[in-house]
Amino acid sequence: MMRLAPQAGERIDRARPLTFAFDGRRVEGFAGDTIVSALYASGRRVLSRSFKYHRPRGELCGCGQCANSLFTVDGRPGVRGCGEPAREGMVVEHQNAWPSLERDVMRIADRVGGALLPVGFYYKTFIRPRRLWPVYEKVLRHAAGLGRLPKRQAEREWRTEYRRRHCDLLVVGGGLAGLTAAIEAAERGADVVLCDEDAEPGGWALVDGRHDEARALAARARELGVEVLTRAPALGWFDGLVPVWQGDTLHQVRAPRHVLATGALQQPLVFPGNDLPGVMLSSGARRLAALYAVAPGRRAVVATVDDAGLQDALALRLAGIEVVAIADLRPDAGGGGPAAYVEAAGIPLLRGATIVRASGRDRVQHVTLAPVGPDGRATGAAEDFACDLLAVSGGLQPSLSLLLQAGGRAAYDPQSACFAVAEVPAGMAVAGALAGEGAGAPVATPPACATDGRRGGKAFVDLDEDVTVKDVEHAVAEGYDSLELSKRYTTVTMGPSQGRFSQIPSARVVARATGLDLETVGLTTARPPWTTVPLGALAGRPLEAAKRSPLDARHRDLGATGRWAGDWRRAYDYGDPEGEALAVQSDAGVIDVSTLGKLLVRGPDAGELLDRLYPNRMSTLKPGRIRYGVMTSEAGRIVDDGTVCRLDDETFYVTTTTGGATAVEQTIGWWQATWNLDARVTDLTQGVAAMNLAGPRAREILSGLTDLDCSNEALGYLNARHATIAGVPALILRIGFVGEVGYELHCPAAQAGPLWDALVAAGARPFGLEPQRVLRLQKLHVIVGQDTDSETTPVNAGLGALVKLDKEQDFVGRWALEHAAEQAPDAVLVGFTTPGGELPTEGAVVLHEGVAAGQVTSARRSPKLERTIGLAWVPAELAQEDAALSISDAGRTIAATVTTRPFYDPDGEVLRS
Amino acid sequence: MSVLDFLTPATGPDAPVAESPLAPALAAAGATFAVRDGWRVAVDFGAPAAEADAARASVVWADVSHLRKLELQGAFDHDLGTAVRRDDGWLLPLTPARALAIGETMPAAPAGADAVDVTTQYAALTVAGPAARETLARFCALDLRPAVAPPAALRPGSIARTPGIVVVEARDRFLLLVGAAVALHVWEVVADAGTHLGGRPAGLEALASTEEVAAHA
Questions:
Q1: Which residues does chain B have within 8 Å of residue A598's beta carbon, measured at their own beta carbons?
Q2: Which of A163, A262, A578, B214 has the most CB atoms lying inside 10 A of its own CB?
Q3: Which of B:152-191 have CB within 8 Å of A?
Q4: Spatial distance between the Cα atoms of A591 and A569, rounded to a whole number of angstroms
Q5: Tens digits of per-residue pLDDT, A309-354?
Q6: CA–CA separation, B10 vs B119, rounded Å?
Q7: Phi and psi for A748 in degrees, rounded to 5?
Q8: Residue A249 and residue A229: Cα distance in Å, rounded?
Q9: Are A541 and B192 in contact (CB < 8 Å)?
């Protein structure tokens, strides 16, 4: 048992014991413990197996930043045990070892892996013979990865929340500096949010004896209304938006001003055996003792380059841990107070020396200390010490990531042997250790790798990725001689701790190998997220934004198959698309077309406006008349189509394609800003429902529901009338997309349901998008976006008659269409049938003299005509009635015949009847 | 018959009752309906007392899509960003040339303004209660802090990833206007967020017990 006597400022509550399971074994702890502190208190030291070599690993940082203690907790993989609170009954399991942490068969990778798994091994080994790659891949994929997701989808999902939070000031980091900044701002009336990664704010002050001060400041901040978010790391910087991940909530914090007090992280030292369990950061060891009353060892050796390591050693000694020796790389051990205290305490202090080797079987048992030269090689007599804890301090590196993401700059400071803040963006301030406060005492620059010169022993630069010093040196030798290149080749800094403890060490190795200084080597680009975050947190709530017609519930009640049409959900069919199409042609059908765009254009210049927007004339429409129109771009390409109905002298009702309304409204608005005509546009798309009643009995059904004279004489093709239908006010447009006598009924969305019900009750059979497509195809009616693309003009789509080049007004696309009209089109849209009955895939290629020359845009089987029909782009020379086509479709060749006239009712007699 | 009559639900003995685009969701949530001024409205969800309690203690959301809405185009000399309280409704200046007038009864169009009935173009929800702002924060990035958006603040913007308008009717009462076609989606989002925070849907009866809409000239 490694639990110490009560420590002043300890976080655990000894009055609330708890137990949890680790790999099936019972572990005791207290409320306030982390998983790691409880495991360490129980005596466990091996917490995980490393990624590549499956070497045993113990705790490194003690503060939730390293990846040495990743566990699966209650089924969730990748939980950092040194930051995760222990809870009663939790089930904790190791990752990346089989069958157990103690006996992992993959340990063989460490024994033989050096030759088989060199840096970049996946480019060199396991690629020959090629035929075995699928086997290699399967094995490697099975061996790689950390943790397993639960098999059942339900266990892989849990609720995550998005929360938007605006404030006047966001303070990132809740140490003394961050708390002070938050309090000062709140006292001046600012709305402040403070976020901190730890379980409570206070930062290092909680560990170094100033816990009362820290907790008092935190209480004061809360009293002043500061929103304090704990266990809440800031994930990154996105143009002033800082997402903060807390539990299951992603706070999206927006503030005009920021204070970054993100502190500094103590760095490890690099030497053979530096990954043994029991080798940890001196701050981590001190933290375990101070906050959790856990002795990380009984007999400690400390190796340091700064006063922080000396202070940590003294604190460990005070907590009851024997410190058998301290190696301080500085020749004068800093020359300050801490060194004097060390000597006064009788702890052997080796000046100018450092750790050159750690050894032991599955945990540290011996260390060797020696003076070293600039190249890291031992230069003098080495001394061995038996110990079970090696606490190291490689200096402090300010946590720059968020600052750099926000556009700040850092520069290497040889005095403090770290990259320090050089430039802070506007609207931001830095405070505390990030800003270099508290620095000043001398710091020695650790060597890239210290060694006693003996063979054997791996010296790791990156514990997450199992990248050694040799790996980085080999990468540089192979030509990956910058930090960014060596990173991508070796994967150094790409592990779960994202370079917190490996970036600086790897930079030193690259500097040594290339002969460049650290300022030149620099840092890799800082990127979010700062810490691991579930994908679900970023995805937000799984609620789909769909537009739905006011008749949507009725379609679902009728068993309609729903499909997306743009951002609308539409009824594709009601279970019998062929039957629905036949019903329209033999009886009557009704389809919900509420998704069509609908715009009201009003004003004295409304007609003029439409004449300028469309190639055809709209101002000549009489009230109650309808005209089909295509809208073109300035390049003369079709961008939308629909109908224009004149309601009165100054009022036009314009329909567009589903999904086209917003773009058309914007286009009109843009041109209006230029022309400034006296006309106004109102979007009615979502407020007006529309349904198309069509078929031989359509007139009879409509007549039964309204007093309006629906005879062909009174309400002929391309005419509009107002009427009350089944008690609902409606605008009736006599148009015919599906080729039968048809009435498009537009009414208030709030009364669409009763109107639909009345039509269906009167015998109109609901039909969906799929039968509608068949019916319109029989008439060779074009669907913009389906049968046209960004290069299609009205001329080559067979709609040239709509283009009135003799209009007086200039109109959008006129110049381009004049040019298009002067030249014969190269390709033309035509209808086709397949005598053999084959149904080509939409998008299949049309061949001409063996070369791809066009494509099929639409193809269906017509139940009425009992043959396959379609539309296709073909070379102009083939656009003749009965011309032969050859269609290549997924390896087969289909013979087709051109049709230039509609398959059904080619002269429109039925349509106009 | 006016050429724009087809935009306005008919009233009268032969006319069917007008329904909110949220009718299916209201029914699914257990609404009790009544007909008021030709519209079928949800008066409660089976627990009017509990709804009133939730309105006071956490958050409620109510469908008020029956509110009449008029789009006005012309010249408006109003502060953009501030709604103007008018009788039983609001005038919402959206641009210098476009405004929306809302009310329990059809608002009157100011002289010189072109008016179009867009009642059915928008769905409307009222979200009210001490947790209303927190609820909105779950799906709306508009800054609705009291100091920044006091009563009568008008904020067009994204609501649940769709274009919408927020009117701060009172300190803890918000009127949301969204396109009628996305009403079901927005209701689902509001319910998802509000339920998680301890709230519930409410009918018009409970809404009356929330804080009064601020009176602004």
A1: none
A2: A262
A3: 160-162, 179-182, 184-185, 188-189
A4: 14
A5: 999 999 999 999 999 999 999 998 877 789 999 999 999 999 999 9
A6: 12
A7: -60, 135
A8: 11
A9: yes
Query: What ipTM describes this predicted complex?
Result: 0.96
Counting one residue from chain A and one from chain B, the pairs whose CB atoms sit within 8 A come to: 156
A430: left (phi over 0), alpha (psi -120 to 50) or beta: beta
Cα A15 to Cα A6, A11, A31, A287: the distances in Å are: 12, 12, 8, 21
**Gyration radius (Cα) of chain B, Å:** 17
Nearest CB to A682; choose among B18, B118, B120: B118
Q: Under the phi-then-psi rule, with left for phi > 0, alpha for psi from -120 to 50, and beta for the rest, what region is A54? A: left
Beta bridge partners of B127: B61, B174
3-state class (DSSP) for residue A139? helix
Tell me how far apart the alpha carbons of residues A569 and A288 are, in angstroms, rounded to a whole number.
57
Task: Pick from B5, B6, B195 the residue to mutate for testing the A interface (most A CBs within 10 Å).
Answer: B6
**A163–B138 C-beta distance less than 8 A:** yes
Q: Which of A680, A640, A643, A644 is nearest to A662 (CA)?
A: A640
Pick from B14, B19, B122: CB nearest A727: B14
- Chain-chain contact of B180 with A648 (C-beta, under 8 angstroms): no
Residues of chain B with Cβ-Cβ distance to A645 below 8 Å are none
* Lookup result for tokens 């033989």: A112
* CB neighbour list of residue A181: distance below 8 Å, 6 or more residues apart: A169, A171, A259, A261, A429, A431
Percent of chain B with pLDDT over 90: 83
Contact A545 B162 (CB under 8 A): yes
Residue B1: the pLDDT is: 67
Residue A271, Cβ density class (10 Å: 0-12 exposed, 13-18 middle, ≥19 buried): buried
10 Å CB burial of residue A84 (0-12, 13-18, 19+) is: buried
Which residues neighbour A439 within 8 Å (Cβ) at sequence distance 6 or greater?
A: A396, A416, A433
- CA separation for the pair A561, A555 (Å, rounded): 8
Q: From the candidates A229, A254, A548, which should be mutated to test the interface with B, based on the most B CB atoms within 10 A?
A: A548
The predicted pLDDT at position B212 comes to 67
Check A164 against B180: CB less than 8 A apart: no
| B71 interface with A at CB cutoff 8 Å | yes
B-chain residue closest to A751, CA distance: B18
Cα of A579 vs its chain's centroid, Å = 44
Q: How is A620-661 classified by DSSP, letter by letter?
A: TPPTTBEEEEEEE-TTS-EEEEEEEEEEETTEEEEEE-TTTH
Shortest distance, CA A643 to any CA of chain B (angstroms): 17
As a whole number of angstroms, the distance between CA A699 and CA A717 comes to 12
Burial-class residue A852 by CB neighbours within 10 Å (0-12, 13-18, 19+).
exposed
CB contact under 8 A, B1 and A682: no
Which residues pair with residue A729 across a beta bridge? A724
Q: What are the tens digits of pLDDT across the range A856-877? A: 999 999 999 999 999 999 999 9
pLDDT range class, residue B217, cuts 50, 70, 90? very low
**Option in B7, B134, B180 nearest A686 (CB):** B180
- CA dist., res. A636 & res. A821, Å (int): 11
Q: List residues bridging with B165 in a β-sheet.
A: B156, B177
Q: Provide CB contacts within 8 A for A154, sequence distance 6+.
A: none
What is the pLDDT, as a whole number, of residue B216?
A: 43
Amino acid at A240: G
Say which DSSP state A451 is in. B
The per-residue pLDDT for B213 is: 63
- A258/A241 Cα distance (integer angstroms): 11
Residue B214 has pLDDT above 60, yes or no: no
- Alpha-carbon span A85 to A31, nearest angstrom: 8
What totals of helices (H) and strands (E) does chain B contain, helices first?
5, 14
